[in-house]
Amino acid sequence: MAGTPMPTGAKAVAAAAFAVVGLVIAAFYVPLMPEAAAVGPFREVTALIGAIVGWRVMGPSVGKGYLESAAAGLKTVIVLVFFALLALGTYEMLKESVKMRYDGPLEAIIDIFSRMADRAPPLGTLNVMLAMLIGGVIGGMLAENASRRWT
Length: 151
What we know:
By secondary structure, the chain is an all-alpha fold. It has one domain. Helices cover about 75% and strands about 0% of the residues. The protein has five helices and no strands. Helix 3 packs across helix 4. The longest helix is centred in the middle third of the chain and has 33 residues. The radius of gyration is 17 Å and the shape is elongated. About 35% of the residues are buried.
């Protein structure tokens, strides 16, 4: 297909790095969740989201230097966390919708964002914040290094 960007080494490294970052963030986040919350495959889904976000967000952001790539890595982590919370909220909403707890589809969709807000406070803990900060910077620098080596 014309106009389709080619896969690059930087995109592959970014995908792998942010899959690991997603897994580490989920590992620190899950013990802080309420005991009533069913985690399900949250860790694996977060790693998959990390790989996709690393490929799509971080991959094209390389080639501008290590400092800019570190900043792009932090942006990538923010996108990763947003979509991980969205996936968790959607998962919990679907579990509740099977039990017929909603009056309509709009109420179910609004509940996704309510659940995202309810699940966000543990992201402010030191361990999770350090995992996001360090993981984003290292992931960005790894992608930049791959871009310089495999151009």
